[in-house]
Amino acid sequence: RARTWCAGLALWVCGSQGRSYRFMSPHGHGSDDDEAAVTAISNEEWCSWLHAELRACPAYATHGALLDECCAIAARWRTRFWGRKALWNRMRRGSRLAKELAEAAPVLERARLEAQSVKLEGGARVVVIDLCSGFGYMAMFLSELLPPDKVERIVLVDKAWARHGVERRPHHIDPAHISDPGWPIRLSTSHADLKTPSDRRSLLRAFLSRGCPAMLLGVHLCGTLSLRAVDLFNDSPSFFFLGLKPCCLPPAFFAQRGDVFGSANGHCFAAKAVAVAGKWQRGKWVGGASRQELQRKFAVWVDNLSRCVECDVEGGGGEGGEEAGGAGRGVVAVEQHRVQSLWLLNDFIFCSRPWAALAPRSATSAAHAAGPEASGTLAAVPAPNRSNGAGVSEARRAAVVANFDEARREAKRARRAGRRGDAERAAAERRRAAREGR
Ligand SMILES: C[S@@+](CC[C@H](N)C(=O)[O-])C[C@H]1O[C@@H](n2cnc3c(N)ncnc32)[C@H](O)[C@@H]1O
């Protein structure tokens, strides 16, 4: 078999049978014209096409067995939804299915292991929350991969779903594929804007108020959405697993107004350390920040996000831990899995911790709902209300930003000094000492 490219369309030449089929560009999203060719092929042929797409993804090298399994699952979907052409067209959408599946593979793999190994008591079953689900491929695959005897439901959370009881508008995602009754584990949608604190609280109240065991997943969460995912995880001790794949860095305005980012566990860092100018456009980075700056800041971003994660369960390890339903410490790790051909965005944050059958803290404590300042985690005078919601005091914010500025100046001096000879370095040091009145 050979594959050639022509004017944005992939031509798949089935050499052995002397037939050729036209498929969409892997960078496009398909059109009705393409569908004529696609519908002409058999399930087996479609499956081999999908398989070839997956084999071409960088994730195949490390997650090949899982992707093969998912390929067989997707082939079953084709049979299942075949009679509903418009719906199937939305589901298969060119190479999008293959791309999103491959990029979510490490989260799918870990989520399955966690669900299989979690110890449940008293008939408790797991709820899975898929943040910023988009169309919902990851949840759909999870429904087929997770053990149905242990997992009760998977909730797809996105601001693009219509609110329940509200008529769906054109900008909302059509949930017809999600509400289909054939999923092995029940799927449901939930509208929530993760940047709105009351939406986050309502989300936890709706699904975790009784402290049922839960896993929190989020793939391709842009900017501060990743921080909001960490906030949710920290807020609810009944989450025993976090699988997060951060996406774009926060935009430059956070740095311009001197923000800090942080979480209720007290960790915070300067927005300047991670915010960048520019944006992704069709898989290409357009804007101010250089590739080097992006790479450096992305590593800092992921590292700080992971430090914001609370992996010790309330009462864990100490007295009362057992009674609280959980015990001991968890573990948080940043893992690199090459899932995209891009030079960036291959970092995953995973946290496993014991399950504590407790309601979300924000549902039980007004002080916690008001942020770490009010709960006494951080120092007293509150900073102006900033959208990152870390609740850091003004004094601490100023200190964190000043420390960052000083560290950056020091690093610059060290770089310059490294380029100079000994004599020049000594002279520069004398000038600096004189300037600073030493
Ligand atoms: C890059 S897509 C990720 C979709 C999917 N997880 C994936 O991996 O392909 C980002 C999704 O986040 C959703 N989103 C953006 N801002 C949001 C917010 N403030 N609250 C909830 N969802 C949001 C968008 O509607 C979109 O579906």
Descriptive notes:
The chain is α/β, with parallel strands linked by helices and 438 residues long. The chain folds into three domains: 93 residues, no CATH class; 265 residues, 3-Layer(aba) Sandwich (Rossmann fold); 42 residues. It is 40% helix and 17% strand. The chain has 14 helices and 14 strands. The strands form four sheets. Strands 6-5-4-7-8-14-13 form a seven-stranded mixed β-sheet, sandwiched between helices. A three-stranded antiparallel β-sheet has the order 1-2-3. A two-stranded antiparallel ribbon has the order 9-10. The longest helix has 26 residues. It is globular and about 80 Å long. 37% of the residues are buried. The structure holds S-adenosylmethionine.
Summarize the structure.
With 438 residues, the chain is of the alpha/beta class. It has 3 domains: 93 residues, no CATH class; 265 residues, Vaccinia Virus protein VP39 (Rossmann fold), CATH 3.40.50; 42 residues.
Which CATH top level class of the largest domain fits? Alpha Beta
Taking the sheet with the most strands, its summary is: 7 strands, mixed
- Contiguous low-pLDDT stretches (5 residues minimum) are 1-37, 315-325, 372-385
Span between termini? 74 Å
The average pLDDT is 83
Structural class: alpha/beta
Rg value: 25 Å
CATH topology of the largest domain: Rossmann fold
For the record, the CATH architecture of the largest domain stands as 3-Layer(aba) Sandwich
Secondary structure tally: strands? 14
- The helix fraction, in percent, is 25-40%
Strand order of the largest sheet: 6-5-4-7-8-14-13
Please state the oligomeric state of the protein chains shown. single chain
Q: Tell me, briefly, the overall form.
A: globular
Note the total helix count.
14
Q: What bound compounds does this protein have?
A: S-adenosylmethionine
